[in-house]
Each structure stands twice: as C-alpha cells, then as structure tokens.
Design goal:
homodimer, alpha+beta, 2 domains, nine-stranded mixed sheet, 11 helices, about 25% strand, globular
Amino acid sequence: MELREPYDYVDEGTITTPAGFKAGGMHAGFRKEPGRLDMALVEADDVCSAAGVFTTNIFCAAPVTLCREHLHGQGHGLARAIVVNSGIANAATGEVGMRNAQRSAQVVSEAVGCSEQDVLVASTGIIGQHLNIEPFERCASQMHASLSSDPQGGHDFARAIMTTDTVPKECAVSYVSKAPGMEGCEIKVGGCCKGAGMIMPNMATMIGVITTDAALEGPAAHAALRAAVNVSFNKLTVDSDTSTNDSVFMLASGAAMKDLPTIRQGSEAFFELSAAVEQVCVNLARRMAQDGEGATRLVTVNVSGAANDEQADLAARAIANSPLVKTAIAGHDANWGRIAAAAGRSGATFKQEDVDIDIMGMPVLRGGLPVEFDEDEALRRFEQPEVVIDVGLGAGPASTTMWTCDFTHDYISINGDYRS
Amino acid sequence: MELREPYDYVDEGTITTPAGFKAGGMHAGFRKEPGRLDMALVEADDVCSAAGVFTTNIFCAAPVTLCREHLHGQGHGLARAIVVNSGIANAATGEVGMRNAQRSAQVVSEAVGCSEQDVLVASTGIIGQHLNIEPFERCASQMHASLSSDPQGGHDFARAIMTTDTVPKECAVSYVSKAPGMEGCEIKVGGCCKGAGMIMPNMATMIGVITTDAALEGPAAHAALRAAVNVSFNKLTVDSDTSTNDSVFMLASGAAMKDLPTIRQGSEAFFELSAAVEQVCVNLARRMAQDGEGATRLVTVNVSGAANDEQADLAARAIANSPLVKTAIAGHDANWGRIAAAAGRSGATFKQEDVDIDIMGMPVLRGGLPVEFDEDEALRRFEQPEVVIDVGLGAGPASTTMWTCDFTHDYISINGDYRS
C-alpha cells in the first residue's frame, strides 16, 4: 500500500468536529466530588450507522453485553446516542447489572427521542458495585438539552469520561476526497478516548468514540473501525491487562455526503476514510501510552523481519510487556539484553545470529552480537519524551509497532500501596 | 495417581547426599570480590547417566549449546562432571563463546580424567562479555582435588553457583523402595539450584543440579527430569522472563543399586523415583519464588476446573505474571477483580458465572459475583509468608499450580535505577 501523507489535524479537534453530532458532559452524581464531570452523552442529529469493538475479556461488564445485543451480535447496526458514566463499571454485577444497563439506555432514549436499541452505553470505574440509576433519571433530559455541536461540547464529553487520565485525549482530521464519485468532498473524522497509561487499583478502561460525517453502512463502519483498532488500541499495552469494559464505538452521520451514495467497503473512498480513522486512533493510542501517573515516557517498539504478522505481534508484545525492559528504560539503561531475551521467549521464530536491535536510533546489536555504542550519547537521547526500540528478526517480511510506557516506582505506589 | 506421603527430607540435604558424588566450590577469579565463590564442580565417581533440560529462549548461551551437543541433541547421555561458573554468562558471544565453552569443558575433563564429552557446563552472569578461560586453567586441578562427598562439598557447590540469590537452595530426600526387584533398597535424591525471585539487571539464570544414587539409563533420567521440571521450575514465574542460560541437570550414579538392574521407565520403581525428583524440584522452585530482593512473600496460584492442562496453565500463568495482581498482594489488597481480569484475558475458555476465587482461604468470588469477606481477617492473613490464590473455572477437569512472588518498590529499584 502506498505511503500516504498524514491528513491535516483540525485545531481543537474533537468528536463534534465532523458535521451531524452534538455532545456534552456534566456532573450527574456517579462520582462524589462536586463538579467532577461523570456523565457524557453524544448524539447524532439523525439515527446513523454505528459500529463497536469490545473487550475480549471473558469477564465482560453488563454495558458491553448490552451493546453487543444492540449491535445484533455483529458489531454494527444503527444508533443515535452513546452515553458513558464514570465511577462505576457495572461489572461482575450479574442480572441486576444487566437490568441497570438496560434501564440507563431506556432513560436516555426517552430524553433523546429515539428507540432504546439505538442507545449504546459504556461505564468505567469500580467493579463489583451496582450502577446507580437515579443520576440517569435525574439528569438525562438536562444532559440532552445542554448538548452542543461546538468544540466545547466535545471537550466536555472527553473530560466526563476520564477516570485515571491526567489529560483529555481527543483529535480530529479532515481530508478532501479524491475518490471517484465524491471528488472534492471534505470529510472529517473525530475521536476521543480515555484510558491512562497506568491502570489504577480500580480497573481503568479504554473507551473510545470515533465520529465521522462520511456516509457508510454499518458493516463498512465496523470493518474500518476494527482495522483501525487492530493497529492502534490493540497495539497499546501498559501492564498487559485487558479491562472488563473496553469499548470503542464509531458513528457515521453522513452529513458531509448528503446527496452522495454511501462509501462502499473496498472502494478508494473507503481506503481514504480508513486511513483517517486509523490516523485518529493511532494518535489517541499513543497519547494513552504517554499518559498515566508514573510513566515518564512513551516507548515505541518496532519489530520487523518477522515470519508473519502473528509472530511480529508476539515479539513486539513480549518486549512491550516486559517489566525488565520497561524498568531499564525508566532507569535510562540501553539494555539490549533484556529486549533480546523478551523476543527470544516470545514464540516468534528466528535465528539468534540474524537479530539487529537499535535503541533510540543507536545500533546496539548486530547479527546477534553486541556492538559498541556511545553511552553518553545514549544518556542524552534518553532525555527525549519518546524512546524508540527497533528490532529486526531477519526471518520474513512482517512488521508491527506497539506502544507502551516505562515502569517506575509510581506504578507500584499507585497499584500496591497499603489500603487505607 | 494416588496421593503419596512426601518422602522424608535428609538433614543438611545436598547434592552429595546420594552415594557416588563429590562436589565443591572455590573462588577462581570470575568474580572480583576475593573469597566470593564463583566456580563449582560436581563429579560422579564413575561416568553415569545424565540428563539436561534447557532454556527454550532462542537467544541461548554458548554453554547451553555445548551441553545440547554433549547430550546428543536428545537431552540425555553420559557424564562424569558438571562445572558452573558465575559472573559471566557467555551469552551473545558467537563463535568465540562456543570455543571458550569447549575449552572450559576440555580443561575440566583433563583435571577429572574423563572425556571432554562427559563434562557438562553452565554459566551465569553478565551477557555479551567473553568467558575468561584462565581461571579454569589455573584452578581445575585444585578444584578436582578439593572435592568432597561430605555435605560441605554440596554446600560449597550451592554457594558457588549463586548470583542474585540471598540464600543457597538445596535439599535431599530419601525413601525405601517397595518396588518389585528392589524392595528395601534405600534411594536418595539431592538437588540444588540458583535463581532468585527477582531478576537483576544482569540476567539471572536458573541453574539446577539433581543427583541420585538410583540406577537408570539416560532416557529414563530425562523423562523423570522433564516431568519434574514441568511441574516445578516451569511453573515458577517472577517477571515472566526466561533467561538465555537456564539449565537443569540430573546425574544418576546407581551407587545405591550396584547389583540391581536399572530402573525402567514406566515401572513402579520409576514412579517412586520420579516422585522423589519432583518433590526435590518443587521444594527448590518454591524457595526460588520466595527469595529475591524485594519479594516479601511467596504467592501460590492454584487453578482448577480448566478445560484442559494447557488452559489451566494459561490461566495460572496470566494471574501469576500480572503486575496488577502482584502489586495488590504487596499492598495487602485482596483484589479479586484483578485476578478475574487476568484469568479472563488469558485465553482459557470458561464462563464468567462459573468462576470461584478464594484468597488465602477466604471466598471472595462465587459464581462470578463478589461475596462479602472480613477485611480485618484478610489483613491478618496477609501477615503470612505465603499467599495462596485459588481459582475455579468450572469448565473441566484440569488443574495446575504456579508460584510467584509479590511486586514491590524494590523490584523497580533493583532493575531500573539510574546507571551510576
């Protein structure tokens, strides 16, 4: 596939940047701190194509189960609104949890004026406790009335879904189509997510919402979303734990293509749009890797020369999940040995004597044997906010990239200090 | 298989406890500190059956490659001596490293008076640096002359192989056979190992030596060793990294069965002996999980009700490798949610609503839903040196046990602090 120039980012890009959406956030009372935004809502002006990709953890939360039903078990369908609450994850809550999730969707559908099936829900926060429905009932109409299609609406949504994040994560890109049948049409893709680099004692969850004003059917939206998630959020690891609540949604309003036929999967227009969705998701995933109390830098692991995609992923994942690799980076140690050992036990097939490793652009291993490097230069390069590790396995054509962060004392403090 | 009473431990049990072996350790100069034992040698009185199980890491060290050759690529053969040096791992050293490993075997074979093929070698320490042969040449004869079949010889061996261990790890068991053809014959199995719970900046390696005065052929010894390793050392994880140098050896002198036929694989005598080898290996593996700077307790993870052995292992391993689970234990937090999420992403198949979890004997999850527990009692139980986690998946008959340790600030300090 030919290399594309990245699309331009829109200033103050957010989920309301594409036409046809309004959003907002408020303090409904799920969280105790007054003024802390804890309920977020995004609505499309009209019912639109929707897609969802969810956690594969067997312990999946009630809201995830409900969304799967609303998307007919296929990951795509129609939707009008997505509501997110933070503070309670509604996970490990059994039948009562399912009823609460359904009730929250019903309450929001009444406020929005749509069918209950057209509301998607997400929750993030403490697991094992029941979801309080009263804030939904008290606030849904007010929430709906206060939504805005301005950037501020998207910013409020992005803040309201945060739990352990230290910063909101949102962006949008725009491009002018060159595809036959829609030349000159300007398309926007926006996105926001939450999910910190460091996972707090209560399960931090990855929630993402992607919006576009392109017109496409559910299956095409799902295909674009899944492909983007596979090379972005699924290539992000901090401590390799998958939350019970991970959810990424995409809504396509079609508002930029009102008189044009929907974008067909596999067409040139589809590839243009997929590239935009991927660009937004990668941007958000990298921000998540950077965020988090305790992380001091983004770590990018590039594996090339793997026998196939699965093996590239095994090797990159083993390196990115290795506590030894990540503590070394925190300690400014260009430790190729730990990287090599992680690749060597990953299950990827290669020969020791074919392996090359570079750390921050400095060769440290060539043909499986260490090479001299300038340690002062390495220390200088460690000052950068991103550390790139390149590993060549010399065993085939496949490559992949994963993102993680380094592993510091703060990780232990956040996750393991004595209960008060 | 019927439950056996454990065999009796021998006081001051060591690798010289079984008849037919002598061992020792000395300061040869691989390590700089004067008096620090860094070269270990064990010899059988006569050439004997030998078996070896080695790291599966693709980045395997020169000594591992040499041992595989000496054991004919099958993991078993004949041997007379095992020599171990600490300080230099002789890994990532290419052809020069292979020649150095061969030379060390040759030097020792001349001192012992056996063929070079009958010497097995192991190294542990810094990777990427070349092995210094001079200490072998200078000390081999002296080392051979100073060996002892007393317990002290075994103790010195156990100390000389240590790198990051805070205590030597050795034990021996004895039993009186009830098997047809050797009733009343007393058999001993001894073992020692090194490999700390915490892995230091330089790759810590697991090295184990098992000795027995039972008589058995190479293939039978390999079968017994492999089975024991699979339920002991391979069920031990601290930060899931496999060293480039892991090696476990077994030597069978036959000295307790001089006029008896060798023990045949699959016989009742073989099962008696296998149980002893397993008991010794499990004892040593648990000690390794407990040791290590920073670990404050042994963590035992029992998974039952898995669909098959592989899935039991996946689930147990995901829990035992989870930084979130291990920081929680360090923080005295009976956090079932993290355990459940780890099992849920492990790849094991089960239903959320079938899962039961107990922490330190206290039920915390039943049928996938949390149960109340006495938090004060939990804090009391956290004072114990061992924390047991029991997870029932309700999906089949398979079970497994893994050992690990908790994850504290000291892990980060040891592995990631700034280079001096």
